[in-house]
Amino acid sequence: MPAQFHAHGSFSAGLTSALLMLPLVYARGWLRVRRAAPTPIPSSSPGRAGLFILGLGALWIAVASPLGAIAHELLSMHMLQHVLVGAIAPPLIWSSAPVLPIWLGLLRWLARRTHCAFASGALGRLGRLLTHPFTAWLAATLTIIGWHVPAAFELAQRSQSWHWIQNASFFVTGLLFWWPVVQPWPADARLPRPAVPLYLFAATLPCDALSAFLVFCDRVVYRQYLTEPRRFGISALADQQTAGAFMWVAITLLYVVPAIVMTVHALSSAQKSPGEHLLDEMLRGSLRVLWNAD
Asked: What angle do CA 89, 93, 98 make, to 5 degrees?
């Protein structure tokens, strides 16, 4: 176990450094948006910048803070890690409308190459496929189920490399899952707003089934936790039941609340005047070429 702590600490230092670079890129692009946009837009709001920092903070707590080491001893902490990575950090990041600031925050040559790669060709088609609601929902669901199969879960616990892959897959599929829900500005909508509650409700079903299994199972599913030191005064079975209950409550709240917010937003958007809709489309069009501005 001490070797795992040492490896985790080394990995955390590098990941922390990488996560610190993202706010710098975002801030550079955010300032460019503020200077170039003729009227206030979602990407230029200080509140949106705050959401981006909160999202990165949640990601750091999950994968680069001491929580990662504790997760080796407590399944409940491991479950908290997964919720932060896949269900809290992604919607916060998308809600910050980060596409334009990050795009503009990159070096000019890199921004141009990125735009060309995704504007046409295979990468563009792949991007549209991955952000399709069905693909995003299926990828997130299979990731959750697959990594909680005992053999896969214990592999990630034994190997630092596989643990990194596990967290990365939760984060990437979390980003894909929340894209159709948040629809980060100025991206085109891929999921009609009235369908958002159904999309989110369908996603709770596999999580609820997994949670119920962990709560009501009368044996420890992940045998590694039987050999871990019980420094926190909780048995392995009680820890497993706590993890299941936490996942059950957390996922239900995290999915139901956005569904309500999206429904209210859809109702308010329907009350926009034709002029407001026209202005919104004009801003979207103009900002597709904003990256050429100094």
From this structure: 165
Burial (CB count within 10 angstroms: exposed 0-12, middle 13-18, buried 19+), residue 99? middle
What's the rounded Cα separation, in Å, for the pair 199 and 256? 11
Signed CA dihedral, 169, 124, 189, 129: sign only: negative
Distance CA 77, CA 217 (A): 19
Sequence-distant (≥ 6) Cβ neighbours of residue 31 within 8 angstroms? none
Radius of gyration of the chain (CA): 21
Q: How far is CA 4 from CA 9, 159, 262, in A?
A: 8, 9, 42
Q: Which of 294, 292, 283, 293 is nearest to 97 (CA)?
A: 283
For the chain, the straight-line distance linking the first and the last C-alpha, in angstroms and rounded, comes to: 52
| Closest CA relative to residue 127, chosen from 190, 194, 42, 170 | 190
C-alpha to C-alpha distance for 161 and 165, rounded to whole angstroms:
6
pTM of the model: 0.80
Distances (CA, A) of 180 to 65, 80, 84, 145: 30, 24, 19, 21
Answer for the pair 180, 199: CB distance below 8 angstroms, yes or no: yes
For residue 146, give the 3-state DSSP assignment. Answer: helix
In the chain, % of residues over pLDDT 70: 75
Residue showing tokens 């999580």: 207
| Res 288: pLDDT | 46
Cβ neighbours of residue 64 under 8 Å, at least 6 residues apart? 11, 12, 15, 16, 19
Q: In this model, does residue 221 exceed pLDDT 50? A: yes
